[in-house]
Write a structure and sequence with these properties.
Length: 196
């Protein structure tokens, strides 16, 4: 019996190495595409599960109806290994009648910036992603054109601390989507939080 040549072994080795490089990272959030409705998600304000028709197919979404009194939110806790880079992504769009109410004395966050606060903030942005622990709140803002297409809002946190401001160990964070005070609707069709 003849032994496989060097080239065959080299090809098999490269194929094995390549397949391990393209393994999809695990989404740390449960029910990230809302196929199970609001299961695993907690809400504040009017957040409902519905389906939008796109290209002849129905897409499950969470629908956030803005309120003129307070922000509308949905959130979930997740475990995070210390000192890891966290990639976060949200796919969302707004209704044609989206109208964000200005807040006197409160400026919008820039969509190109990341923000760190204590205590938490609720500026009048179209949509906010918040990652929090017991003492710090990290933010990224997104712009959603009224009646526009799906928008991806994403950012990366490099090496989040494994302790809070008082030195206590942290192993749990909260992922939160926040719609501002105002009128109209925001639909979210997928969310991602994964280690990179």
């Amino acid at each position: 019996m003849r032994c496989p040549s060097f080239h065959v072994w080299a090809f098999l080795l490269v194929a094995l190495a390549s397949s391990t490089l393209f393994v999809q990272a695990e989404n740390l959030l449960k029910n990230p595409d809302f196929t199970d409705g609001k299961k695993k998600w907690k809400t504040e304000g009017s957040v409902t599960h519905t389906e939008l028709k796109e290209g002849g197919e129905l897409t499950p979404v969470l629908e956030m109806s803005l309120s003129t009194r307070r922000p509308t939110e949905f959130y979930q806790k997740f475990d995070l290994e210390p000192s890891k880079t966290l990639y976060v992504e949200v796919i969302a769009k707004a209704s044609e009648d989206l109208d964000v109410a200005p807040q006197p004395g409160v400026d919008k966050f820039s969509p190109r910036g990341s923000y760190l606060f204590n205590p938490p903030q609720r500026p009048p942005n179209d949509i906010l992603i918040e990652i929090s622990d017991v003492s710090m709140w990290y933010y990224r803002a997104g712009e959603l054109p009224p009646g526009g297409d799906w928008v991806k809002v994403s950012f990366t946190f490099d090496k989040l601390s494994d302790t809070d401001a008082r030195g206590r160990d942290l192993d749990e964070r909260t992922f939160r989507i926040i719609a501002p005070v105002g009128n109209g609707k925001i639909w979210v069709k997928s969310v991602t939080a994964e280690l990179r």
